[in-house]
Design a protein that fits this description.
The complex is a heterodimer. By secondary structure, chain A is an all-alpha fold. Chain A is built from 13 helices and no strands. The longest helix of chain A is centred in the middle third of the chain and has 37 residues. In chain B, a hairpin with a 4-residue loop joins strand 1 and strand 2. In chain B, helix 1 packs across helix 2. Chain B has a 4-stranded antiparallel β-sheet with strand order 2-1-4-3, with helices on one face. Classes of the chains: A mainly alpha, B alpha+beta. At the A-B interface, helix 1, helix 4, helix 8, helix 9 and helix 12 of A face helix 1, helix 2 and helix 3 of B.
């Protein structure tokens, strides 16, 4: 699951890098995915944790680095979601949204980590050392901060939105954050039980629940951040528009007779494969109407008529909502 | 509008009278009718003056009022090469349609931009 989250987030990061470079999308989400990729890389699923830890000097500093990266990533997701969706006008001035606040959070996690009695590098750092008050404080503060950040994202992201894509993306991100919050609560319970010396079914269950809850949350959050780039790609490909262009060319071959034969062949290919297919579909629909008005096609065959109705319905999907929106704005 | 009101090959027309303007269009599928209306809007937006009513190619509707002073008209032919004014109105109709049908990119909200749409 951690590997899946890593590769998905890497893909989303690449897509978001393109969107920021070309279309001025949010750099907060780009930062979140980029930092998240590095954070997940530090989990030891791609390169063994001991190898990475040795690169920065050993004794579990990688654990701290990874947790700081994940905290920064979640704070950046929160920053992007708040900028896009928060309805409160004063939200932008909140202290919690300033980079200095993030610095304070990272410091709050780092200080207890440095106060521990360091043990040799281990893949099970928290389970093996959580009896130390400093490690318990470090891990609990980290989980509490992450849970609190995740909860605030959940509160803002769930709700009605004008844009279906934004609503879908925000809902999936919010759900992912919700799962992550549950993972944080579960981990705090586990660490508290271990810190107090409990060992048994409760610790086993809470320990076992952490990875599915926390990393499925990360996975869903990555997926949610990937929805807008996917929608954008889908719109750009416009396969449905291209399909209806081909169908109309097949059902209304007479529309090609209005042009020279060589150009007509070109226009079929150009219509189906060229840029702005929605415009081309519209032009084709109008040309078919003109054909009938000019008396060149007295009546459409039922299948052709059906194809024309469906192609128009495809255009109406974009035409009607926009018309309603324009009317709404005009009334305001 | 019944086809017989409009001359053969004419898809729609704008008739500008002293107290009102009318846009008439031939029956057809929904988008095509809208396009014809957009074409006539194009004439209005471009400030075309139109032809005097004496030249109206109408069999019925304007037979009684066609001699009124100040009436002018323009039409959208489907089968003949478009003259300059018609071509301009047609280009504007396509431009308007482009904004209405596929111009959503231009209407991206702040939230959509931040999310990457």
């Amino acid at each position: 699951m951690i590997q899946a989250a890593f590769w998905l987030l890497t893909l989303v990061f690449a897509a978001r890098l393109y969107l920021v470079a070309r279309h001025n999308a949010s750099s907060a989400f780009l930062g979140a995915t980029g930092v998240g990729v590095v954070g997940l890389f530090c989990t030891g699923q791609i390169v063994p944790e001991s190898t990475l830890d040795a690169l920065i000097g050993g004794t579990n500093w990688l654990h701290l680095v990874r947790n700081l990266l994940v905290t920064a990533a979640v704070w950046l997701v929160r920053e992007g979601v708040f900028t896009a969706l928060s309805a409160e006008p004063e939200a932008r001035q909140r202290v919690t949204r300033r980079p200095l606040f993030l610095g304070a959070l990272l410091l709050a996690i780092t200080i207890p980590f440095t106060l521990q009695s360091f043990v040799p590098t281990t893949d099970a750092f928290v389970p093996e050392t959580v009896q130390q008050p400093a490690v318990y404080s470090y891990a609990t503060i980290y989980m509490a901060i992450l849970g609190d950040l995740g909860l605030s994202v959940l509160q803002v992201s769930i709700g009605p939105r004008d844009s279906r894509t934004v609503r879908a993306s925000a809902t999936v991100v919010g759900t992912g954050m919700g799962l992550m919050v549950l993972g944080c609560v579960d981990e705090i319970i586990y660490m508290s039980l271990r810190f107090l010396g409990h060992q048994g079914a409760a610790t086993d269950v809470t320990h076992g629940l952490f990875t599915p809850l926390f990393y499925s949350g990360i996975l869903l959050t990555s997926l949610g951040l990937g929805i807008p780039p996917m929608v954008r790609l889908w719109r750009r490909l416009a396969l449905v528009d291209r399909f209806w262009i081909l169908v109309l060319h097949c059902k209304f071959p007479a529309v090609r007779s209005t042009a020279k034969v060589s150009e007509a062949r070109l226009s079929v290919a150009a219509d189906a494969l060229g840029p702005r297919p929605a415009d081309r579909l519209y032009t084709l629909v109008i040309a078919i109407g003109d054909l009938r008005a000019a008396g060149r096609q007295a009546a459409y065959s039922p299948p052709a008529d059906r194809a024309l109705v469906l192609a128009q319905r495809r255009l109406a999907n974009t035409f009607e909502p926009l018309g309603l929106e324009l009317r709404k704005r005009a009334e305001i | 509008m019944a086809d017989l009101v409009l001359a053969d090959g004419v898809t729609g027309r704008w008739v500008d009278m002293p107290d009102r303007g009318l846009i008439q269009y031939r029956r057809g599928h929904a988008f095509w009718c809208r396009h014809v209306i957009l074409h006539e809007f194009g004439h209005i937006l471009l400030g075309h003056k139109g032809e005097p009513a004496d030249g109206l190619q109408s069999a019925g509707f304007f037979s009684g009022v066609g001699k009124r002073r100040g009436i002018s008209w323009m039409c959208r032919p489907a089968s003949i090469p478009l003259e300059e004014a018609e071509q301009a109105a047609e280009n504007l109709a396509y431009a308007l349609a482009q904004r209405l049908v596929t111009g959503q990119d231009a209407c991206v909200s702040e939230a959509e931009r931040i999310f990457g749409l």
